[in-house]
Amino acid sequence: MFQARTKVVLFYLISALFILVNIFFLVNKHSMIINALPVALGIVLLAVFAFDKLLYLVVFFTPLSIPLSEIMPGLPINMFLPTEPLLFGILLIFILKCFSTEKFERAILTHPVSLAIYLSLFWLLVTSLSSTMPIVSIKFLLSRIWFIVGFYLLTAKLFESAKNIEKFVWLYTLPLLMVIFYATYRHLGYGLWDKQAAHFVVDPFYNDHTAYGAAIAMYLPFLFGFSFSKTYPTGIKIVVRVALGILLMGLILSYARAAWISMVAALVIWMIMRLKIRFKHIIITFLVSVSVILVFQHQILMYLERNNTESSANLGDHLSSVSNISTDASNLERINRWSCAIRMFEDKPILGWGPGTYMFNYAPYQLTADRTIISTNSANGGNAHSEYLGPMAESGFLGLITFLILITVVIYTGIHTYSRTNDKRLKTLVMSAILGLITYYIHGSMNNFLDTDKLSLPFWGFTAIIVAVDIYTKKVAQTEVSSENQT
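RE: above sequence
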């Protein structure tokens, strides 16, 4: 009763305040601010009365968010609108709730995946304090925290219901379909098979065609799973398959080779999990493969150097050009960025240069022999081009190790959760989340996008799916054991 009265009082107070502010700005003729006020009021009301709806709003607008630089070029700061300001607000609300009487789900806070995340955040904090550019690093750390709070901790709480997981997936997929239609329509103006056009037709929603391809690749496993799931009626499956076809079209027209390769890797992992191949056999195969590569590394390098196939509109040639390290500018520039990251690491192997500082420090580490026609001194067209070498250069050896620990714990948890549950619906969701993350783990060896909302949302959101289902299945197992003991 008291809570109901409090909500009513808050509603009238906010409404009265809104009317007074409107009158003030009308008198002072600030029309632009007046137009924004209803939106701001709506967001405040969602935060107070329907916090989960605010999270869903952020998910929906993430594929459609645009950088501040597109609206106001020349500013010294940049952020994605409207998602990052909303995420910052969500972070503040989360902190306030933690200090109030409300208690957050202990099972989520103390989960092994959460502990691995805390470890990585702790090391980011340490290396931010020792950073060569502390302000840049603190901003990087803050954005990582609001991504984790909004897309991992709070979504994991929402995912106590499987329906919320599906809603989360579709709230990103539907606007992503809009972006695909937009990009394809623009692409038509240059010719669908114009590879160069693929680089800019997704602007301003995605600043890089590889990020666009990576996002599509992460959601494809879910649509594959939904389209063949026995828990969905035929009518819904038809709609899902249409959406699946559109996503596949978007993936092909993205010309993102790393995304294509990541899908092949996800397919291999799916086959391994379906065939229930024992983990020790996978490890043996991996070690043998690495040994063969090390033994024949010179022969392999010579073979790769003989590949002169350039990236082109021909899909076969474009895929073949992945291994061209002699003339393909894109591949050579990646090697240049990776080499810079390794040299930076060698100079500061313990604490690194500071989170988010690679782009400001890598230029002097470029060798003349490594520079390409697309080389710059300001990290245009991507950062370190690696989610592994980037943290190593910016946060030292432990920066790489903490990220690898997180990946290992997530995969281990995901596989065990998938094996434990007998619910077909949950199996589909967990398998899809694992495969979606695998696509990014593979993609992360060639690109890095976790500093953006576009890829942070599925990365942390899919991790939250695995954690939420893991907690749920453990509770179910404990309940069943308790029931058996009582009988």
